[in-house]
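tokens incoming
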């Protein structure tokens, strides 16, 4: 990867109680270059699309089509496209890398061990993400502290060193599940049907299952792995 995104000068200091709109506004001012929203069509991302439509409609939305998404996820994408006349910048994995992976290791190599899982995520998610962030000054995510042990230290705005030093903007970091769902219901937003089938967190179809009562919200992601490994390389 030769490209590096434009360097930002500093991370703006925000009140710990700053709301989503304030965080977005501060991020847009601080970013050196275009800011984009990474959308996986989770309920958090749908909430963010609605907020951005109201306060910063110039922000573009991109999505990664890993080739292993649920049909229900595509349905949400289409519903959003129609509701907001939303132009989604889709990114696919490199064809040759996917062909080589599937020819050499089959279709479920990611279940064999952590290295294989990271290899699949690298090909299908991380590399397309890098391309999506080329030339951008910042990216907005739907990450929340409450989602995972790996996200407990999340900041509202941080420098994303892994992706070349652009800003990573997390407007919903302090939102609870209830806040997210109350907002989605009040605004009548299109949400993934899988949520009501026990999927609080939705990723690729073969790596996501519904959770049982009492389980952590991310227990259904890569459920065969330890909790501290449950990231795909998009967020580190
Ligand atoms: S979540 Fe699963 S299918 Fe999707 S890229 Fe990662 S390992 Fe591959």
């Amino acid at each position: 990867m030769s490209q590096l995104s434009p360097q930002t000068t500093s991370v703006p200091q925000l009140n710990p109680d700053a709301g989503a709109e304030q965080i977005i506004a501060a991020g847009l001012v601080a970013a050196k270059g275009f800011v984009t929203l990474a959308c996986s069509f989770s309920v958090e991302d749908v909430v963010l699309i609605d907020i951005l439509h109201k306060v910063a409609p110039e922000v573009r939305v991109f999505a990664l089509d890993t080739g292993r998404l649920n049909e229900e996820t595509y349905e949400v994408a289409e519903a959003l496209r129609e509701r907001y006349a939303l132009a989604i910048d889709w990114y696919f994995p490199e064809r040759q890398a996917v062909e080589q992976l599937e020819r050499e290791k089959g279709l479920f190599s990611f279940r064999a061990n952590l290295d294989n899982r990271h290899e699949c995520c690298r090909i299908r998610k991380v590399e397309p993400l890098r391309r999506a962030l080329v030339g951008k000054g910042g990216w907005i995510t739907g990450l929340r502290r409450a989602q995972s042990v790996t996200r407990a230290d999340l900041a509202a705005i941080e420098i994303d060193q892994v992706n070349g030093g652009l800003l990573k903007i997390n407007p919903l970091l302090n939102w609870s599940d209830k806040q997210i769902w109350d907002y989605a219901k009040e605004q009548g937003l299109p949400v993934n049907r899988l949520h009501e089938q026990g999927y609080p967190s939705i990723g690729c179809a073969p790596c996501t299952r519904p959770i049982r009562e009492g389980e952590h919200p991310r227990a259904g992601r890569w459920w065969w792995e330890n909790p501290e490994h449950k990231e795909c390389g998009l967020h580190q």
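note: The pocket of iron/sulfur cluster is lined by residues 66, 68, 110, 117, 120-121, 124-125, 203-204, 206-207, 232 (CB under 6 Å).
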